[in-house]
Amino acid sequence: MPKIGSHVSFSDKGLLNAAEEAVTYGSSTFMIYTGAPQNTRRKPIEEQFIEEGKAVMEKHAMNEIVVHAPYIINLGSYKEDTFELAVRFLQEEIRRTDYIGVRNIVLHPGAYTDKDAEYGIARIAEGLNEVLAGVKDTNVNIALETMAGKGTEIGRSFEELAEIMEQVEFNNKLSVCLDTCHIHDAGYDIVNDLDGVLHHFDKVIGLEKLGVIHLNDSKNPRGASKDRHAPLGSGWIGFEAMNNVANHEKLQHLPMILETPWIGKADKTQRPMYEAEIALLSGNLNGRFGGEFLDHVERIDFLLGKKEIHYRDFVLNTWELLKNDAKAKKADGREPLERLYDILHEENLFSDLSEEQINQRLIVWLAGKDILKKA
Ligand code: FE
Ligand code: FE
Ligand code: ZN
Question: What is the pLDDT, as a whole number, of residue 375?
Answer without folding.
Answer: 63
